[in-house]
Write a structure and sequence with these properties.
The complex is a heterodimer.
Chain A: E1 3-11, E2 19-27, H1 33-43, E3 64-67, E4 70-73, E5 83-87, E6 94-96, E7 99-100
Parallel strand pairs in A: 1-5
Antiparallel strand pairs in A: 1-2, 3-4, 3-5, 6-7
Chain B: E1 2-10, H1 14-25, E2 30-33, E3 51-52, H2 63-73, H3 80-99, E4 106-107, E5 110-111, E6 124-125, H4 132-145, E7 150-153, E8 156-164, E9 167-175, E10 181-191, H5 212-219, E11 224-225, E12 230-239, H6 250-257, E13 260-262, H7 285-297, E14 307-310, H8 316-323, H9 326-332, E15 342-351, E16 354-355, E17 368-370, H10 387-409, H11 420-427, H12 438-452, E18 456-457, H13 459-476, H14 491-515, E19 524-525, E20 539-544, E21 547-552, H15 554-561
Parallel strand pairs in B: 1-2, 1-10, 2-7, 10-17, 18-19
Antiparallel strand pairs in B: 3-6, 4-5, 8-9, 9-10, 11-16, 11-20, 12-15, 13-14, 14-15, 20-21
Classes of the chains: A mainly beta, B alpha/beta.
């Protein structure tokens, strides 16, 4: 049976000039927040920016976000049938939407 | 933006990082580029199982035994030079990793080697628990970080190789962090981008494994080989939903504990497909995938469309000893192995095919090298379990040496490329607002490949797939959607470049699979169920005027790697 979560997501490219956007997401017990964000990209809005490589294994460590104000990995946090507030990491430089500059300084091209 | 280096390494899995280390050791300066974070994406970090190597730590062994097993698994199609290199130099690289502190599992001071399907003796080293790939990645990352001559550049997505006449002289890239185009002038370039598992809906690797390197090579006029051979890992996790763990995680536990594959009647079934398991793990990957899919087709599958894997007969203490803390992670996902089986099904895992190289990892194009899974040929029609990390290390090391050597005697001044302007124009193209759902297109392509170019193939399915790939290619168009200068992580632009590569590679796989009218290893043609002696040849893929061209035979093999 399919439950629904309401994902309220921070969108924007400037930390001080963003907006909140909500999407209803159907899910099955056990699915991750990243599953929900990927569902939105495919079914509602492909412009939503989030970074991840490994999808499910918690190996790449790229999908760090803030969920209800707490830093989590989107791939290991479960979807729940309630409103979930999702924002980019507040202690990192914003790139776009949920993507922040998380690479160590020595691994960035062009000294960004 | 612009950068200049002796050796450009594209991709920072085990192959790319080892290549970078070795190129510096041979005197070169290196730019190590990755489209994601350095040393965290790709397949290496996901490898939770074992590494095959004739160390002889468990029982006496010699590389020739490993070589014979590799050739047998490859069903007659292995490139013998590459297979020999892999097996002969494997022990050296595994010992180097040991010296660097990777932490291979040990018992009484000696390295433990496990028995795996297809091997004639215990040969596979690993890092407990489920930690082989992460440990290999971390070890190499640590070594790389200490070498000042390696410049690391993450979030750099290479879009095209640069050519000067017939030579490869660097690459043009999209910097994901800013959206800016980048030209990299390099005396030598190594493609270490891994395989193509992202083409499939169910896969065991990272989202950055979409066959980029194959597409780069094809567009630069290098040859690919064995593209039809995609390895499906038979027992990928299917249900219940499991998060925080890779779907290939059951393999090491089958090594340790055996486990039983059951259909929905609770019966073991592999014996009906010619393989008697009897509680042990002996079935090879091609045979396992076939048996499971046929069982599902006959209506004896599990609710989610796979079969059951059960450890219920194993005492709890033994489970705990073998799984360690993983038992608790499974419990968090609601899985108690003493009480229930899990559902498993074949999952795209590895690509035997890839870029054609000689045993110096050199392609047919001066200045272009390849390493790791991106290389085709060593594993023929079916890869022996445990060979992937070994080839990443061995081929990476070899490619690093060759590329550095080439760069040292290459007097061509960098800075000129015939196609630099065209590549920059594409990266900075302004097509304006276009209503293109790239995320949905990616999902659609994965469905086409899974359903029609998966483990069980027919002419009808492959032809249908080609028609769909054609129409998606038209839909994609010649320019990325949106405008440049809109900042970093413009997802639709990034996915457009991904789809440009993935559709080209999907076509190469499908056309090669359609041409091979036989069943061999990972290519299971239901309309041609027999292995045909006349098909004991390798196919080569090149691109001419936007069309894929196929050729075959040993003569082509020589032509493809001549330098």
């Amino acid at each position: 049976m399919s439950a629904r979560a309401k994902l309220t997501i921070w969108r924007g490219t400037k930390a001080k000039a963003g907006r909140w956007e909500s999407h209803e997401v159907p899910f099955e017990q056990g699915q991750s927040v990243l599953d929900g964000l990927r569902w939105i990209r495919i079914n509602r809005d492909p412009t939503l920016a989030i970074r991840f490589s490994c999808i499910n294994a918690n190996a790449c460590k790229e999908c760090m976000i803030e969920l209800d104000g707490k830093t989590v990995y989107a791939c290991t946090e479960r979807l729940l049938p309630r409103e979930m507030k999702i924002a980019p990491l507040s202690n990192k430089q914003l790139v776009r939407d949920l993507v922040t500059e998380i690479a160590p300084p020595g691994e960035r091209f062009g000294g960004r | 933006m612009r950068a200049e280096t002796d050796v450009l390494v594209i991709g920072s899995g085990a192959a790319g990082m080892y290549a970078a280390i070795e190129a510096v050791r041979a005197g070169a300066r290196v730019l190590l580029a990755d489209r994601s974070l350095i040393g965290r994406g790709g397949a290496t970090v996901m490898a939770q199982m074992t590494v095959a190597v004739a160390l002889g730590a468990e029982t006496p062994d010699h590389w020739t035994h490993h070589y014979n097993d590799t050739l047998a698994a490859g069903r007659g199609l292995c490139n013998r030079d590459l297979a020999r290199l892999l097996c002969e130099q494997g022990p050296d690289c595994i010992r180097a990793m040991d010296d660097w502190g990777v932490g291979w599992a040990r018992k009484d001071g000696r390295i433990t080697q496990a028995m795996a399907p297809g091997h004639d003796r215990p040969r596979c080293v690993y890092v407990d628990f489920l930690n082989t790939g992460p440990a290999v990645s971390k070890t190499l990352r640590t070594v790389v970080n200490k070498i000042p001559a390696i410049r690391r550049a993450g979030d750099l997505c290479v879009v095209d190789l640069l050519r000067n006449g017939g030579d490869v002289v660097g690459a043009a890239a999209l910097h994901l962090g800013s959206g800016a185009p980048v030209i990299i002038d390099a005396k030598a370039t190594i493609i270490a981008t891994g395989g193509l598992t992202r083409l499939y809906r169910r896969n065991s690797a990272s989202a950055n494994m979409g066959g980029d390197g194959y597409a780069l090579a094809l567009r630069a006029d290098a040859a690919l080989t064995d593209m039809e051979f995609v390895q499906f890992f038979p027992i990928g996790h299917l249900a219940p939903r499991l998060i925080g763990m890779d779907p290939i995680m059951w393999d090491p536990f089958r090594y340790k504990l055996g486990g039983r594959l059951l259909n929905n009647r609770g019966e073991e079934f592999t014996q009906n497909y010619g393989v008697i398991e009897d509680g042990k793990y002996v079935i090879t990957r091609d045979a396992g995938s076939y048996a499971i899919l046929k069982e599902v087709e006959a209506g004896r599958g599990s609710p989610h469309g796979g079969v059951y894997l059960s450890f219920q007969h194993v005492p709890e203490a033994e489970l705990r000893a073998a799984f360690g803390p993983v038992i608790d992670r499974l419990a968090n996902n609601g899985i108690d192995l003493t009480k229930m089986p899990v559902e498993v099904a074949p999952i795209a895992h590895y690509h035997m095919g890839g870029i054609a190289v000689n045993d110096a990892m050199q392609t047919g194009l001066p200045g272009l090298f390849a390493a790791g899974e991106a290389v085709g040929g060593a594993n023929g029609a079916n890869r022996l379990s445990g060979n992937a990390i070994t080839e990443a290390l061995v081929f990476g090391r070899r490619a690093g040496q060759s590329a550095a050597e080439y760069a040292s005697r290459n007097a061509t001044p960098s800075g000129h490329a015939d196609n630099a302007a065209a590549a920059l124009d594409l990266i900075a193209a302004d097509a304006g607002p276009r209503d293109l759902n790239t995320a949905a297109m990616l999902q659609a392509l994965q469905a086409i490949m899974q359903d029609d170019v998966g483990p069980l193939r027919t002419e009808a399915r492959l032809t249908r797939a080609l028609a769909q790939i054609d129409s998606m290619t038209k839909e994609l168009g010649r320019l990325p959607p949106g405008s440049p200068g809109q900042g970093g992580f413009d997802m639709r632009r990034l996915e457009w470049f991904d789809l440009r590569n993935m559709l080209l590679v999907a076509r190469a796989v499908t056309q090669a699979a359609l041409a091979r009218t036989e069943t061999r290893g990972a290519q299971q043609r239901e309309d041609y169920p027999r292995t045909a002696p006349e098909w004991a040849v390798n196919q080569f893929v090149t691109q001419r005027d936007d069309k894929i061209e196929l050729s075959r035979s040993a003569a082509c093999a020589e032509a493809a790697v001549a330098s």
